[in-house]
């Protein structure tokens, strides 16, 4: 029998994250939605808290950092014998879900919990993990010339003595202005194609790195989204993540492993926003006299109740897919298919649930009297970044059909 209950240690961590979401994020959610690009000063206290928890060995609150299967106390010898571990990825997923329930924009702004941290956790060497374990890293992939095709990276990295020299432009970099480090995707040899794409850790104060502008966005306005310029940007030679060798046969699978860690986290963010919308909608429907029953067929209930039950079922499916992908990562099982499945399902469910909640709530949902309309705007990005809905479906189709990227485009 499959046991879907969370381990006691992870329940405590998730509850801690929920309290942060409820007591810190929710009260200031509208404030920073209306004050785009203002730094949430309330998060400074959280920065110290997160660092203290990390030093003490307690699980992180924000959840975006992710982790390896062997970086958690939950991965003891006993759990290895049982073949079942719940480590850094599962903890990060649950914390991302809970904090996104509070406010996904603020969650993406938590110091030292950037998406670039998941890239470091996925492919860094042990020595690099020690050096970059406590940085706040954003991730810079997208460029003006491409969006979803990560293999089209044109930013270059040229080795010059003991330094890499990077040149290029990166757009839509989450926490691009506030983070202390940037994980930049660049090619070390354009003639070798995608195999030569590597990721580099660029410190904020690296010469040649600058912020060109901040984007005005539909949602997650509490989070800064930057355009970064790399103009003869110099970084140490050993700041290339993982192996510097170019393996044509392997391609850029090592770099792409980043997504196997981050896509379930983004799925969790969408699940958290969807749950927030469902909870708020249920209160509104109940106040309006709409009864939701689990004992009566949906078709025999109020139309709004039937829609609520449909959305709740989709939410549960997205939640379970995300858990599965994170569990596989913690147990060192290849999870590219499951990561894309969870991201595709959760991204679509998040936008469907939040926008339908706005619709069913009527004037209340469309106004700023509740956070429903904000969640509708916030959720859209969760179906786009870390790979769009269409790209996720393409990846799933390739995996299921056994096709290569050349055979199925």
Main sheet: strand order: 2-3-7-6
Structural class: alpha+beta
Task: Using the alpha-carbon principal axes, give the shape.
Answer: globular
Strand content: 5-15%
| Tally of strands | 7
CA distance, first residue to last residue: 39 Å
Query: What is the mean predicted local confidence, pLDDT?
Result: 89
Polypeptide structure, described:
This protein is an alpha+beta fold and about 400 residues long. The chain contains 13 helices and 7 strands. Strands 2-3-7-6 form a 4-stranded antiparallel sheet, with no helix packed on it. A 3-stranded mixed sheet has the order 1-4-5, with helices on one face. The model is unreliable at about 70-80 (pLDDT under 50).
List the helices and strands and how they pair.
Layout: H1 8-34, H2 43-56, H3 77-82, H4 88-102, H5 104-107, H6 115-123, H7 126-132, E1 137-140, E2 156-160, E3 163-174, E4 181-187, E5 197-203, E6 209-214, E7 225-236, H8 253-287, H9 303-330, H10 336-361, H11 363-366, H12 372-382, H13 389-401
Helix pairs in contact: 1-4, 4-8, 4-9, 6-8, 8-9, 8-10, 8-12, 9-10, 10-12, 10-13
């Amino acid at each position: 029998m499959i046991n879907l209950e969370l381990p006691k240690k992870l329940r405590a961590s998730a509850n801690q994250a929920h309290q942060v979401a409820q007591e810190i994020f929710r009260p200031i959610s509208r404030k920073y939605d209306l004050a785009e690009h203002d730094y949430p000063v309330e998060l400074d206290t959280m920065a110290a808290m997160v660092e203290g928890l990390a030093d003490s060995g307690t699980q992180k609150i924000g959840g975006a950092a992710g982790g390896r299967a062997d970086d958690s106390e939950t991965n003891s010898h006993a759990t290895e014998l049982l073949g079942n571990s719940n480590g850094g990825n599962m903890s990060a997923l649950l914390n991302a879900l809970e904090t996104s329930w509070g406010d996904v924009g603020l969650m993406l702004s938590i110091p030292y919990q950037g998406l670039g941290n998941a890239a470091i956790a996925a492919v860094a060497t042990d020595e690099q993990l020690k050096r970059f374990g406590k940085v706040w890293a954003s991730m810079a992939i997208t460029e003006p010339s491409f969006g979803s095709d990560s293999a089209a990276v044109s930013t270059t990295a040229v080795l010059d003595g003991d330094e890499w020299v990077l040149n290029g432009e990166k757009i839509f970099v989450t926490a691009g202005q506030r983070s202390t480090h940037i994980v930049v995707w660049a090619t070390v040899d354009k003639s070798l194609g995608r195999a030569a794409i590597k990721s580099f850790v660029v410190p904020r104060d690296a010469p040649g790195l600058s912020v060109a502008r901040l984007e005005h966005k539909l949602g997650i306005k509490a989070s800064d989204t930057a355009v970064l310029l790399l103009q003869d940007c110099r970084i140490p030679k050993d700041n290339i993540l993982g192996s510097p060798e170019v393996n044509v046969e392997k391609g850029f699978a090592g770099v792409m492993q980043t997504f196997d860690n981050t896509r379930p986290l983004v799925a969790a963010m969408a699940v958290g926003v969807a749950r927030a919308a469902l909870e708020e909608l249920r209160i509104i429907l109940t106040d309006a006299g709409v009864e939701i029953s689990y004992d009566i067929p949906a078709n025999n209930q109020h139309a709004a109740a039937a829609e609520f039950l449909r959305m709740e079922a989709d939410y549960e499916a997205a939640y379970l897919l995300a858990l599965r992908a994170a569990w596989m990562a913690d147990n060192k099982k290849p999870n590219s298919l499951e990561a894309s499945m969870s991201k595709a399902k959760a991204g679509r469910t998040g936008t469907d649930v939040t926008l339908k909640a706005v619709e069913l709530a009527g004037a209340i949902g469309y106004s700023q009297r509740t956070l429903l309309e904000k969640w509708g705007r916030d959720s859209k990005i969760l179906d786009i970044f870390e790979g769009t809905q269409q790209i996720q479906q393409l990846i799933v189709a390739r995996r299921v059909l056994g096709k290569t990227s050349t055979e199925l485009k």
